[in-house]
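To close the chapter, one final illustration. This time we ask the reader to focus less on the individual chains and more on the assembly as a whole: which components sit near each other, and how the overall shape emerges from the parts.
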Amino acid sequence: MKRDIITSAIGIIVFTLFCGLVYPLFITGVSQVAFPGNANGQKVYVHGKLVGSKIIGQNFADVVMKNGKPEMSAGEPVTAPDPRYFQTRPSGTDPADNAAATEFANYGPNSVVTKDAIQSNIQAYIALDKAPDGTPYYPGGLTAAKVPVDAADTSASGIDPDISVRNADIQAYRIAAVRHLSLATVDKLISTYTAGRGLAFSGEPAVDVLELNLALNRQTGGS
Amino acid sequence: MTVSGWLTIVLFVVLLTAFAIPVGGYLARVYTGERTFLDPLFVVPERMAYRVLRVDPDNGQDWKHYARSLIIFSLVGWLLLYLILRTQTLWDFTGLNPMHYHSGTWNLSFNTASSFMTNTNWQYYGGETTLSYFSQMVGLTVQNFLSAGVGIVVAVALIRGIVGRSGKSLGNFWQDMVRTVLWVLTPMSIVIALVLVWQGSIQNFSHYLSVDGITGLGQQIAMGPVASQEAIKMLGTNGGGFFNTNSAHPFENPTAFTNFFEMLVVLIIPAALVFQYGRMAGNRRQGYAIYATMMVMFLGAASVAYVAEAHGSPAQHAAGLHTQVVAGSSGGNIEGKEERFGIAGSALFDVVTTVTSCGAVNSAIESYTGIGGAVPFANLSASEVIFGGVGTGLYSILLYVLLAVFIGGLMVGRTPEYLGKKIEAREIKLVSLGILITPLTALLATSLATASKAGRASIDTAVAHGPQAFSETFYAYLSQANNNGSAFAGYTGYVQPNAGNLGAHGITFADILGGFDMLFARYAPILFALAVAGSLAGKRVSPAGLGTMRTDNVTFVVLLIGVIILIGALTFFPALLLGPIVQGLTGHLY
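The assembled structure is written out below.
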């Protein structure tokens, strides 16, 4: 008994040093040398300013101004999606796309709350597709049935960097019109930033929204 | 459903089997002391470890001694982890608490320490919003290794008891732990961690990033030594996330490739142990029979989950969404799932991590459809015998094997025997207790939590009503009892006192009940499994006769599946009806 306690105490210290310090420090050392970009989060700089991470979703929205001041709601500035940018998926974090406090939305499959949330996401998606004069950018206009599921359902991480190809293709009409680009140009950028399935079969083709938006900014010269 | 979706499931099974067979052979050599290709690296550290620990590896332990070493070692580990969590701020001098998070409260720390020591890794703690890098590395990562090791050595000890031909020794606990960490967990974790960083996982000690954002709307991005923890979290079927959203977070699981890779990593040891068992039993067909049993149930679970999720949910349909596959969109119930994994990659991951005791999630299980969500419930109801946790899966299914042998023996009217050893009243009593203790714990805890006001405080009333609220509660205690750790994550055991967290506060009832749920349902079955091992170890082996029931053919596989499903169904069916099955059978919204 006493013997076991002593051995356990020594054992836990030895294993802690080995598994808790030597192992992670070794991995950190190798990673920082072999893959420094990835190990540090694939940071993206624009004109020397850190603007995000390539693989973390971002909220491409602007603060809504009212009488020259940001409109506030519950202590947080109200934001609206910026139509010049491709929009990421709905997020369950607070505020949207908060990459320092991720959480699931936990919307149940048979829940009225879920239905309402999806409906409001559908409405927001359709509203964003309308030009200031009310005409839709998407030919023939969007209906709930045409909205891709990933545009109306929250992601898991709340910071999903990707959208589906269909979601991007629909938003492309708006982007092309707002940025005065040809649809073909925007579509070409979409395919450039679409990652295929892993090993050609795993997962879904996914469009990286942040990289796509950065490329658009470069194309139209500035933000 | 898509061709690539089904291909994912099929190729996964094929690749898993292809890798598991050689790894099983390697494990058998490690635990029988034969030479392996890693010996030159580890023989010296191994000898040093024995000298520091002052143990004689050749000193065999009977089951009681083996169990005593294991329990005391676990207790001491628990104490250290609890202290680390409680004194988080004391370690600020290391620079590994860049966000200056406060120390955990006693109740939350009790739950988290119990959770990591039992290989559960239930997430009442909030990952990036609660824990310092120091706590994650020196606290959680260490228990990720050790709890996995404890599971594996129990399985090895039980194998030795079943196949042993001399005396009462089950081996030496300390030797088994040292060899598990050195020969199995560490080298594999190093490779896995580096593959993850290569694909985009992070591994640093930076302060959280404050970025400007492309539109000027700022964003905070959590950092940390993620890959090293992610590797052992998956390999050791631990499942406790570095981040709150676990393997859905792009830094934990950056690509569709890593998603597939992580699934293989979760199942590799549980699957390989089955082949190791066949080798150590001197009859590989015994291993194949168990593998076939597990695989049939696994494929069933994966197919049902995929079909259910691809169909979409009642809430989606009520909102007017069309959920079929169209060009460029996966369709289906993508609520709470990541685009890069898609429906199949999420559903399969969910099955992989709930048949094992991993409990990592790459999608929100709470958002699964009724039937899709019933699959993890069913996996847990089978008491983690479909591959199961590292080690726990094998020792649990071996208990079921003994029970099936007993039932089969009764049917044909002969004294039941397994691998030449007679199964008698004492063994069957221990087996029954070992099998029933987990369901009993889960159901008792669920009843307590459902019936009491303190228990209902954990339900996320903002989103969960009706059957969903019951599902949240039931899943919480079922998952903790099975040491799984996945969650209907609306169910909460902690509250953030203010934004930016300064020390999350526990919900005492949920933390304590969950903590005891995990501890009891982990160590009671371990003791029963070791007792069975001890009881079998000393038995004489009689040669197989004409009337001996074979345990390596299709008939036995069918019998074994029948026994597992029967026990799971009899125990849990009423409770399952009240939660996920109701939702699966109706389009009604609550």
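Chain B touches chain A through 142 residues (CB under 8 Å). Chain B has a mean pLDDT of 94. With these observations in hand, you are ready for the problems at the end of the chapter.
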